[in-house]
Input
Amino acid sequence: MRLAFWIPVLAASGALLLAPPLSSPPASAVQAAGSEAAKHPAPHGTAPATGVKGAASETAALEIKRQQLAAREASLAIKEQELKNLAATLDARVKELEAAKASLDQSLDARKKVQKTEYQKMLKVYKALKPDEAVKLLDKMDEEQALELLNEMDQKRVAKLLPLIKPERALKWTRQNMAAK
Output
């Protein structure tokens, strides 16, 4: 059976054991029993009536403690199972995230490859253009992009383009290459 069923049962039985009796003997009956015990002493080897009550109360107290411990143990077992379930859920989520990351990495690598291929095509186009046509386009480009294209071109092609480029860009390109040494 499931532990969830037993927890309320154990809690209810523990509460019943801890509850005071619904009715108690009248005080006169308790006094009469006490006076009877005084008139007729117990035979040797038997415990007096109060000793039996003390042992019974100790047994009841031990039983209550045992039930409380059993209830705690059941509660801890349930919590342990919940933690195991949460750990399994987290492990599954981590695996999902790792798979998603791998997919994104693959997608990013594919995109970089495509961009590199497109960049190489564009570089070939610029190399194929006449120097004055290439310079017109380079002068209209962003400075960083134009300088990057110049860095990718071979030395002979740059030697033809450099005199035609704006002097500021040519100087900046030269300084960048000198600083790279």
